[in-house]
Design goal:
Two copies of one chain form a homodimer.
Chain A (H helix, E strand, L loop, with lengths): L3 H8 L3 H9 L6 H14 L5 H8 L4 E6 L7 H14 L3 E6 L7 H7 L5 E5 L5 H7 L6 E4 L8 E6 L1 H14 L5 E5 L5 H16 L9 E3 L4 H13 L6 E4 L2 H13 L9 E3 L16 E3 L2 H16 L7 E4 L2 E3 L12
Helix pairs in contact in A: 1-2, 1-3, 2-3, 5-12, 8-9, 10-11
Chain A binds a DNA duplex (16 and 16 nucleotides) through α2 and α4.
Chain lengths: 333, 333
DNA sequence: CTGTTAGCGCCTTCAT
DNA sequence: ATGAAGGCGCTAACAG
């Protein structure tokens, strides 16, 4: 594993000269540079990036921590982040917090392997986050809220979005609306639940315990929750799924039971994942501005890195996307 | 930015003692350890991972380089890689080669920021790859073949897969079959084209230049290619898309033109992306064993890292997934 | 233009 | 049990 020292020796110059030559500092005669480059090639020399970072005490990279690489919309979000990141000539790396929340993610959070991190994962504890903050190391939280120095939050208005969804159902004549939640430790899920309840209340409807079921934001959990909904008999006329993935699972469960969407039951999701427009029927849902969240998060990152005063909380609006999984107005039982 | 030195000073011990205490070496009296830990907390001390890696000259992480984070089946593949990687107590980080093939990706390829790299991107040149190999730094290439020391290839049998697809169409009675290719620099695309031609030939059919159109493996390119296919009049009875993404684009183009799939035209894709079973009609396609490719790649990585002799080339089989986008046997014009 | 020197933050013998 | 010293590979003054 050749080092710069070996290169310098072989080229017959000092280490610093080699360094300059390798880095294109034009303080070095082109003849010597050539010698150095030649030697480097002969030795198959590769610089050690860590040593460089250590010296420069800046990594020029920002990390994003995801719950898993399979998340429903992480690709669009990452695209947003990536666009801004590369415009700032920074590197972007992604890692998953799945399984071992304590290993990979921690290395980025606590060991200065990045200049800042964007986290979009529920399974990283507030405590760990708080421990990891420090001057000059911004943490941007997505879809999650936590107060702290150098912590910035980009959320969407989950409660309003959920309210919009529920209102939409109610205005279409539904009075019996189930809600399938996400995992208990997800703020997004909790907020969506709140929005659901607020809408019910505002419309004089009562929440029915039998119609709120727990899910986990996964397709399978949506499928299962729907199955138990069906099994327990006495179906509502509509169900609001905490996210699209679960709605997709629900669609499958209904299909298997011969229950027609939207004729027999209306369903609405949340997120507007790519799949949503391809399901059968296409899924009505609440869109999250995923790409924009990504760019905003990255923007905040660089502002914070730049040392400016940065607003700590951003709450982005959602949008109702009407497709065909709900019975339309006037089309009431 | 507190360093271990600060901690040691505050605790009133030597740096090395602090190091031991922090790392749990039980060579240190618990009373001093406590002092050190206390000091570390007070100072909000975080170790610098790079310095550690530099010292230890091993990063315990492997990197995967993707063309972009938006690819259709990266998530499944990454899951495979991730599972093996974390079982080996390594970290996994992903980065994109999009745009600046020269920046982020290069940092991992050439600057020893990872112990090995898995690459799944066409826009990284063979040359760069070859330059980056060195003893103890394995590179695993996915869906791509390159011969070199410390380079391992995991491919699927693209030509056989393509042949299977085309044979399938021919056996269903089709004689006029178009092919939409991927980008010219994609080996996968080229192999699929070869398989297509072989099948044609084996079945006594002639390749028609007007029916092979270039695409880019993106949905949009599939849409456009299909549009020009339609525009040029004289439609074939079937089209084989180089991948599913393009087939999805094609589906849209056909729908817009009122051409019914599979009644008016049969289409088949390649990859079996998640979307494939949700399109309308569900897409018949050739499945790639994505998860398995991921696990295999990671396995090879660790074998190579372990210094054993490792087979350099693996070629995985594909599988025909029959759905509803092709007219079935006997159903000929 | 080139070489010497001194760290970056950490870990690891080797003495004490 | 603890401390002093050297070095990982590189860069950045500062001299020559």
């Amino acid at each position: 594993m050749a080092t710069i020292k070996d290169v310098a020796k072989l080229a017959g110059v000092a280490v610093s000269t080699a360094s300059c030559a390798l880095n294109g500092d034009n303080k070095v005669k082109s003849s010597t540079r050539l010698k150095v480059l030649e030697a480097a090639k002969r030795l198959n020399y590769q610089k050690n990036g860590f040593a460089m970072d250590l010296k420069r005490s800046s990594t020029q990279t920002i990390a994003v921590i995801l719950e898993g690489f399979s998340g429903p919309y992480f690709s669009e979000l990452l695209k947003g982040v990536q666009d801004i990141t590369s415009a700032n000539r920074y590197s972007l790396i992604a890692c998953s917090s799945h399984g071992d929340a304590d290993s990979t993610a921690i290395r980025f959070l606590k060991e200065k392997r990045a200049d800042g991190v964007i986290v979009m994962a529920y399974n990283i504890s507030d405590e760990l986050l708080l421990e990891s903050t420090r001057e000059g190391f911004p943490i941007i939280l997505l879809n999650r809220h936590l107060r702290g120095d150098f912590i910035f939050n980009v959320t969407i208005d989950d409660v309003l979005g959920a309210k919009t969804a529920t209102d939409y159902l109610i205005q279409a004549g539904h009075k019996e609306i189930a809600f399938i939640s996400g995992p208990a430790n997800s703020q997004a899920s909790n907020h969506r639940y709140i929005g659901y309840k607020e809408s019910l209340k505002a419309n004089g409807l009562k929440e029915q315990p039998k119609w709120v079921l727990p899910g986990k934001f996964t397709r399978t959990s949506g499928y299962k929750a729907t199955k138990t909904l069906i099994l327990q008999g006495n179906l509502p006329t509509a169900v609001f799924y905490g996210n699209d993935e679960m709605a997709v699972g629900g669609l499958k469960a209904f299909e298997e039971s011969g229950i027609k969407v939207p004729d027999d039951i209306s369903i609405i999701g949340f997120d507007d994942i790519e799949l949503a427009e391809f399901t059968n029927p296409p899924l009505t849902t609440i869109r999250q501005p995923k790409y924009e969240m990504g760019t905003l998060a990255a923007h905040l990152m660089f502002q914070a890195l730049g040392g400016g005063i940065v607003t700590q909380d951003y709450n982005l609006p959602t949008e109702l996307i009407e497709r065909e999984s709900c019975r339309t107005f006037g089309d009431q039982r």
